[in-house]
Amino acid sequence: MPALTRTRPTHAEPSGVDVRLPWWAVALPAVAFAALLLLIAGPGQAHAATGESATGQLLRHLVELLTR
After folding, report:
1. 3-state secondary structure at position 63
2. Per-residue pLDDT at 45 exceeds 70
3. Distance in angstroms (rounded) separating the CA atoms of residues 4 and 48
């Protein structure tokens, strides 16, 4: 006796599913991104022996690339 299998309908029906995210699902990645950006951009308590900051080096390289 063959087993009956269910197949998907050939036409698409709207399921009416409403996907909602909790507030923290949007807030936490935004806060993490801002914190990492501040860690990269801000000099913090680091004391370099000599030379320019990473931001200054990046800007200098960008200017060199754009002026070629």
Report:
1. helix
2. no
3. 73
User: Token pair of 68, please?
Assistant: 């070629």
Higher pLDDT, 2 or 28: 28
List all residues 6 or more positions away from 53 whose beta carbon is below 8 Å from its beta carbon. Answer: 43
**What beta strand segments (E) does 1-68 contain?**
none
Mapping DSSP to helix (H, G, I), strand (E, B) and coil, where does residue 33 land?
Answer: helix
3-state secondary structure (DSSP) of residue 52: coil
User: Which residues lie below 8 Å from residue 3, measured CB to CB, with a gap of 6+?
Assistant: none
Average pLDDT of the chain to the nearest whole number: 77
Looking at the predicted structure, is the pLDDT value of residue 5 above 60? Answer: yes
What's the length of the chain?
68
* Beta-carbon-side half-sphere exposure of residue 1 (alpha carbons within 13 Å): 1
Q: What is the pLDDT of residue 8?
A: 63
